[in-house]
Every structure is written in structure tokens, then in C-alpha cells.
Write a structure and sequence with these properties.
There is one protein chain. It is built from 19 helices and 16 strands. The chain is about 50% helix and about 15% strand. The longest helix is centred in the N-terminal third of the chain and has 63 residues. By secondary structure, it is of the alpha+beta class. The termini are far apart.
Length: about 600
């Protein structure tokens, strides 16, 4: 008894404790085999959980087709089930002479068992939990003393089972508490990380880092590439600056576009990339059409192992940044709208002779807006060539906002504002002409690129005078606007009026319609000859004027004989009805060529 109690108290494995009690029963009661049957209340079946002397085959067969509690009554059926039902020890002297045991006789015969005795195991509230069942190989009647000893041992087995189940419950409770504690720690860590993220995002918002700064912050946090754009593909920011998230696989076909729309409508950061290159698409909340979105791509680590997928905390960080991007974008849009209104008024005054009577007041307002009215400027006019479809209209407001955003870090501020359907940009130049040229050619291409992105390639830029003062911009702007109204989808992306010399000034002489009719009337017959005879008369005229009207130099540029150049010039002049020996006719022809080139005709020779 001491041995079994010690095993129970020392929390040995339950099956080992039950096997120990089964062995003790065999030794104390002179049994050949003994088993501890544990009752499963939900199913009402018994399973052997510990034994002594029984073969593995017997145990397996018994557990495969387990005994059921409802197979016995108080007087009939297997002793194990009867003992559990009655709560008293039960024995059978010879199982082969006892009725109602047919199902078990074959298994007992293979094991060589004959007599069976079973004592119930119960909890403190008398609920049955199983039996301690012993076997002998010969017939045997068990006296009261043997039954009492078996009952005492069954109480020990019951105590072991109850203690084991209590320990299991306690361990499960401890495990649940530990798991809850770990979850709490993880939640606290997440809250701390989100708090740090919120503080960092607030700092970014207060320090006015812009969309590029937010993208750079998130790229550092996630060790990833970030691209922020609109649904129409207009790039808003990227980190690193040359980052490009490959979206073709997602945007190709109706299925890919439907998936993107689904993610944007859901409003949550969603991983949509392949397993080896996780890409997360993050909708920007509150954005109007076209909606803004952020792409986050994590590449492989040194090419040695696949990139890790994004976890929940990282997606929360993305969504936090998306909210900040929405706030920053809204702030930039409001600022751009306000600046565009103010600049539009400033440009209207610069073009108004009545307003420029008070030029000092206008220049003071320009200085208050961050411009430098004292310095020289380069003049650029942006226009959008529309589709021929009905209802297609340019959007100068969106183009103005895009150009203002592209030049947001430039000081002094460029003057960017709408004049009708065109957007005018006056880019301040430095005092040093060389530095001026370097800076102007760095800023102007970036504005042209942004205009191309935001208009889907439909923007054209007419570059007017350089070194113009704000107070004198009116006349120069009039010429550039005249030229801008001539552009077509066939026009080059950048048209520089300086390339046309003094003839560019002649664009001021008439309306767009009159200039177009003039060019068509002058060059139309020449172009018709080119079309029907497959000649190059218009190109030869351009090359001739570019070569300072030298037949020899023109021939070198066109790789033809000088006599060929002279022959072509005569044919062109005859078709146009002009005399190339008269200065007035030369001026007429050059102006027609300027208008035709702005509209995208034969390119000017280099």
C-alpha cells in the first residue's frame, strides 16, 4: 500500500501507477493477470489503461472492441460492467459456464483466462470511473477478505486516476494561463510598437517630410521597396527613389484588375505577391478617383533565401502609414489648390496692363507667395492634347497640382498656375548663366515628366523666353500661349521657341485658327507634292533655312548633290507660289514652317 501511495504522490506516469497497482493485486490476491479498466462517460465504454500479466494482443483486441456499460445489469453481463453499475465487487468462478459472456469467451480462451473478479473505482461523489479487474487460469471463488483487499486496491487506483485528472486540469489551466500571459505580453509589445509607430508618424506629419519621407520611413521599417501611385499609374513617391514594384502580373487581364479593385474596396493591407516575393497592396483611405495606393515589396535577402512574408504588425504599420499618406495627400491638395488660386490671380495681373500700372503691389504679392520677382525666369507653358472623342476635356487643375507638387522643394518658388486650359510655369533662374542652364534643364525635364505621367502622355510643353523678369512676362507669355494653342498629338513633347529665332515672335500676329490656315495655305501644295511624288521638299526647306540658306551645306546635311537641293527649292517655291529671292516671301515661308513644326509636322533638322 505504501509503495502505491508513494507512486501516486510522486506524480509518476498514470499508466505506470496503474500497472503497479495491477501487479500488487496479482501478488496480494494470487492472480495471474490484472487490468485497470477506465470508463469513458460520454461513450460509456471501458479501455485498459494499465495491466499486469496480460498479453499486448489481448489488450489491443479488448480496446479495439471495448466493453460497454450498457452490456450489463446488476446480475448479468461481464463482471467489469456489473461492478461499475452496482458499486460492489463482483466475481465469476468460470466464465465458460456463466451465461451472457459469449462475446468475450474467445478472447479469454486465447489468453487462458477462466475466473474473473472486479472491484469498482469511484470518485468521492460515488461516480464510477472504472474497475480493477483480476483473472485466474483456473476456476476460483473469491472470499470476502480477497474482495475487500481488491476493493482497497481499486480505491488506490481510483485515487491515482482522480489525482492524475486533477493534475491534467491544473496543467491545462496553467498552460491556458501561460498562453494568455504570452498573448498579453505579445499584445503589450504590439501596443508598444504601434505607439512608437504612431509617435513616429506624428513626428513625420509635423515635420512636413512629404510623401517621399513617409515612403522612406516605411521602407526602413519593413526593409522593403515602397511605391505610392494612383490607379492611373501616376507615380507619387518611391523609396528608394528608383524603386519600381512590378505590377504587370497583377494588372494584366480582367482577373488581375478585378483582384486589385477587390483589395482597394476592402480597404485593408493585403498580400498579393508570389511566395518568394511578397507584395502587399495597401489602399490609401479617403482618396477620390483616381484612388491612391501603396505597393510594398520585400525582395530576397541577398539572393540566398526567400523573403519573409509580412506579419500582422507590419500590415498594421502599412495601414498606419496609409492613413498618414491620406492626410499628407489631402494637405498637399489643399495647399496646391490654394496656391493655384493665388498664382492664377498673380498671372492674371501679370497679363493685365491695368493691374501692372501698380506693378510694385503685384511684385510684393509675388514675393509674399515665395517667388523672387527680381530675378530672371524661364517661361514654360503646358497644355494637354485631348482625344478626338466627344466630351474629352483637359484638366488644368490636376496638372497644376502635379507640377506644384513636383516643384515643392524648389526655392524660390516657381510661379505655376492655370491660364485658361493651359498651365504656365515661370522657373526662377540663378544669377550665374551656367548654373542657370544646369538648374533649368534639371527642373524643367522633371516637370515635363510629371506632366506626362499625370496626363497619360498627353501633355506638351512650349518653352518660351529665358531671362525674363516677372514684370515683363506679359508679352512673352502671349507669344508662348499662341504657340501652345498650335500643338497637336503629333507635336514633340517639348517645343522650344528659341529654336525658331525671331520668327517665333511672329506667332503673336494672329489667332490660332488664322495661323493654322496660313500654314496650310502656304505649305499645303508643297506637302501634297511630297505625298504624291514621294519627294522631300518640306524637309529640304527646313534643312535649307537651318543651314543659313546655303545649298552646299544643305546638301551635306541631306547627303545629296547641291544641284538636287537647288532643284527641290525651285519646285517647292513654285508649288507655294513664292519667290525665294524676296525677303518677304522668305519670312512668310519660315513662319509657315514654324507653325507646321509646332503642330508636329516634319521635324526640324539637327
Amino acid at each position: 500500500m505504501t509503495e502505491s501511495l508513494r507512486a501516486i504522490n510522486e506524480e509518476h506516469d498514470l499508466d505506470q501507477v496503474l500497472a503497479l497497482i495491477a501487479r500488487q493485486a496479482c501478488e496480494l490476491l494470487d492472480l495471474q493477470q490484472c487490468a485497470v479498466y477506465v470508463l469513458d462517460p460520454p461513450s460509456g465504454t471501458f479501455r485498459i489503461n494499465g495491466s499486469h500479466g496480460l498479453s499486448p494482443g489481448y489488450i489491443e483486441r479488448t480496446n479495439v472492441e471495448p466493453m460497454r456499460l450498457d452490456e450489463a445489469t446488476a446480475r448479468t453481463g461481464p463482471p467489469t460492467a456489473r461492478a461499475a453499475l452496482t458499486g460492489r465487487p463482483v466475481f465469476v468462478e468460470d466464465v465458460f459456464n456463466e451465461p451472457g459472456l459469449d462475446r468475450w469467451r474467445a478472447n479469454m480462451a486465447r489468453e487462458g483466462l477462466r475466473a474473473v473478479v472486479a472491484a469498482p473505482m469511484r470518485t468521492t461523489d460515488k461516480s464510477p470511473i472504472g474497475t480493477l479487474t483480476g483473472y485466474t487460469r483456473s476456476e476460483r471463488a473469491f472470499d470476502t477478505a480477497a474482495l475487500d483487499q481488491l476493493a482497497l486496491l481499486s480505491d488506490h487506483a481510483a485515487a491515482a486516476i482522480v489525482a492524475a485528472r486533477r493534475r491534467d486540469r491544473e496543467r491545462a489551466a496553467i498552460g491556458a494561463l501561460s498562453e494568455a500571459n504570452e498573448e498579453l505580453r505579445a499584445q503589450q509589445a504590439t501596443v508598444a510598437r504601434l505607439r512608437d509607430l504612431q509617435q513616429e508618424l506624428t513626428r513625420l506629419l509635423l515635420t512636413d517630410v512629404g510623401l517621399a519621407g513617409i515612403a522612406a520611413f516605411l521602407a526602413r521599417r519593413l526593409d522593403a521597396e515602397i511605391t505610392i501611385d494612383d490607379e492611373d499609374g501616376t507615380a507619387l513617391a518611391a523609396s528608394p527613389a528608383d524603386a519600381t514594384v512590378q505590377r504587370d502580373v497583377f494588372e494584366g487581364g480582367a482577373g488581375g484588375r478585378a483582384r486589385l479593385t477587390e483589395v482597394l474596396d476592402a480597404g485593408r493591407a493585403t498580400e498579393i505577391g508570389q511566395a518568394d516575393t511578397p507584395v502587399c497592396l495597401v489602399p490609401i483611405p479617403g482618396s477620390t478617383s483616381p484612388r491612391a495606393r501603396m505597393w510594398v515589396r520585400r525582395t530576397t535577402s541577398g539572393g540566398l533565401r526567400p523573403a519573409a512574408p509580412f506579419d500582422d504588425d507590419e500590415r498594421r504599420a502599412m495601414e498606419g502609414c496609409a492613413l498618414l499618406i491620406a492626410l499628407e495627400r489631402s494637405r498637399l491638395e489643399r495647399r496646391a489648390e490654394a496656391e493655384a488660386r493665388l498664382t492664377k490671380d498673380l498671372l492674371a495681373d501679370l497679363l493685365s496692363p491695368a493691374a501692372m500700372v501698380h506693378a510694385d503691389s503685384v511684385m510684393a504679392r509675388a514675393a509674399a507667395l515665395g517667388h523672387d520677382p527680381r530675378g530672371s525666369h524661364e517661361l514654360a507653358v503646358f497644355v494637354q492634347v485631348t482625344d478626338p472623342s466627344p466630351g474629352a476635356r483637359p484638366d488644368p487643375g490636376r496638372l497644376t497640382a502635379a507640377l506644384l507638387d513636383a516643384a515643392r522643394d524648389i526655392r524660390p518658388r516657381p510661379v505655376v498656375g492655370a491660364v485658361g486650359d493651359a498651365v504656365v510655369a515661370l522657373l526662377h533662374t540663378a544669377a550665374d548663366p551656367l548654373r542657370d542652364r544646369r538648374r533649368g534643364r534639371a527642373l524643367l525635364p522633371s516637370l515635363v515628366e510629371r506632366a506626362r505621367q499625370v496626363t497619360g502622355g498627353r501633355a506638351r510643353c512650349v518653352v518660351g523666353a529665358v531671362q525674363v523678369e516677372l514684370a515683363d512676362v506679359g508679352q512673352e507669355l502671349t507669344v508662348a500661349l499662341h504657340a501652345a494653342r498650335l500643338v497637336t498629338p503629333a507635336s514633340p513633347e517639348i517645343v522650344r521657341l528659341a529654336d525658331f529665332g525671331v520668327h517665333g515672335l511672329l506667332l503673336e500676329s494672329g489667332t490660332t485658327e488664322r495661323l493654322v490656315r496660313f500654314a496650310e495655305r502656304t505649305l499645303g501644295p508643297v506637302a501634297e507634292l511630297d505625298r504624291t511624288r514621294q519627294s522631300d521638299l518640306v524637309a529640304t526647306l527646313r534643312a535649307w533655312f537651318a543651314a543659313d540658306m546655303s545649298n552646299r551645306e544643305t546638301a551635306g546635311r541631306l547627303f545629296v548633290h547641291p544641284n538636287t537641293v537647288g532643284y527641290r527649292l525651285k519646285r517647292a517655291a513654285g508649288a507655294a507660289g513664292l519667290d525665294l529671292g524676296r525677303p518677304a516671301d522668305l519670312m512668310t515661308l519660315q513662319l509657315a514652317l514654324v507653325v507646321d513644326e509646332i503642330r508636329g509636322g516634319v521635324p526640324r533638322p539637327s
